[in-house]
Amino acid sequence: QVQLVESGGGLVQPGGSLRLSCAASGIGFSINYMAWIRRAPGNRRDLVASITSSGNTNYTDSVKGRFTISRDDAKNTVYLQMNSLKPEDTAVYYCNAVGSRWTGGNLDVWGQGTQVTVSS
Predict the structure, then answer these.
(1) Which residues pair with 38 in a beta bridge?
(2) Rounded CA gap, 49 and 63, in Å?
(3) Nearest to 108, CA basis, from 41, 21, 37
């Protein structure tokens, strides 16, 4: 069974930084795409950033220039470096991994979420 474990959330003042990590554990899978999605209270889930196995990245407009997504394939881990944080970045951040299972079939798993709160 494949699981995603997130870490790095917390409380930070506006203008501060946080680094989120998401590690995939288990055996018998390959990950092609990883992403961070956030949900603020009362809002829908929004894609924040994504990265493919070839290193192509995509960001929502509101975080461009402030957030950086990266991955370490040897560790099956994706990171989200968040700088110049704003109160509107406050949300629960979820990690998502998409790929394939060696036994056949698709892989689409989600982490449990980590809270990011930006407040003075």
Answers:
(1) 46, 93
(2) 8
(3) 37
Label the pairing between strands 67-72 and 106-110.
Answer: unpaired
- Count of beta carbons in the 10 Å neighbourhood of residue 53: 13
Angle at 115 between CA 112 and CA 120, to 5 degrees: 180
DSSP annotation string for the chain:
--EEEEE--EEE-TT--EEEEEEEE-SSEEEEEEEEEEE-TTS-EEEEEEEETT--EEE-GGGTTTEEEEEETTTTEEEEEE-S--GGG-EEEEEEEEEEETTSSEEEEE---EEEEE--
Among residues of the chain, what percentage have pLDDT more than 90? 80
| Residue of 38, 56, 39 lying closest to 48 (CA atoms) | 38
Residue 98 has pLDDT above 90, yes or no: yes
